[in-house]
Amino acid sequence: MRPLVIALVVVVAGGIWWLLGTRGNGPSDRLVLYGNVDIREADLAFANSEHVEQLLVREGDRVHKGQLLATLHTERMAAEVAIAAARVAAQRAIVARLEAGSRPEEIRRGRDEVAAAEARLDDAQRIHRRTAQLYQRNAVSKQVLDSARTALDVAQAELRASQETLALLEAGPRQEDIDEARAMLAANEAQLALAREVLEDASLYAPFDGIIRDRIVEPGEMVSPQTPIFTLALTDPLWVRAYAPESSLGRLRPGMAASVSTDSYPDTSYRGWVGYVSPTAEFTPKSVETPELRTRLVYQVRVHVCNPNDELRLGMPATVTIPFDGSRSEGDRRIPTCTSQGGD
């Protein structure tokens, strides 16, 4: 029995050694890795706080970039847009009035007032001269002469005032007043643009092609910018997150061709390529490493994969095979795509 037990132990030990030696490494001309399908996700939310009006998609729906997904109640936002538009219209009228200056009718009226003031001044001067002559002959009292002088001074002041008013009408508004009105118009226009932006943000659009993974709220709920509405899964690019041993890093390069298979579709091979190799080990190594421990370190590898029939799902276990003879040349810096890989 002892030789039989020894032979059995040797066979088992040899099998374990062979399994550990081939797992993750495969034949020398290819590298076999094991991982899971991974995708990027985005939580979509409105930029405003309001009640949800309608939700247009459900879990599992495939959406395209720019597609309308949901809307909010917009009555309050539309009213704010109308108020801002009215303010802009009123301020534009003020700016136009200031820029146009005085109307011709106002200038003509100012000139007429100057002419009238000149006539009153001429009359006051004649009265004052006659009164002064009479006063010299003692025909009138000093009070009458003073009244005539006062009337002359008033006529001169009225003429100066009417002339200055005419000058202001001909010069038009001050440039500072025009600049102030223009600045106020710019502020009102900015407020209108903001109100319109808020109204546009009441509609939620898909930022990219993908699949609705979660529908988190329902119509009628009050939401805010911190409230996710949908979780959108990005279906392109799709990759397999795997881990490569340190001993294989010397032969692993981004852009190398790869094939991916899953247990769900064992007869299907998906084309792919190495998209990313982590520059650091997945786990923090010890300060002192023996050669045996260093070979056990693993590095994250992302293998982009084409999924034409939408068969791959998030978290699905996958096997990645990378033939080392399929590495691209050092001079080829083009980013592979499903089209450039020759289809699926």
3D architecture notes:
It contains 6 helices and 12 strands. It is 41% helix and 24% strand. It has a domain at 81-196. The protein has 344 residues and is α+β, with helices and mostly antiparallel strands. α2 (75-100) packs antiparallel against α5 (175-200) and α3 runs antiparallel to α4 (142-171). A hairpin with a 7-residue loop joins β9 (257-262) and β10 (270-277). The longest helix is centred in the middle third of the chain and has 33 residues, at 104-136. A 6-stranded antiparallel beta barrel has the order 1-8-11-10-9-12. Residues 237-322 form the CusB-like beta-barrel domain. It holds the Pfam family HH_YBHG. This is HlyD family efflux transporter periplasmic adaptor subunit. Residues 323-344 are annotated as: Disordered. It comes from Halomonas nitroreducens.
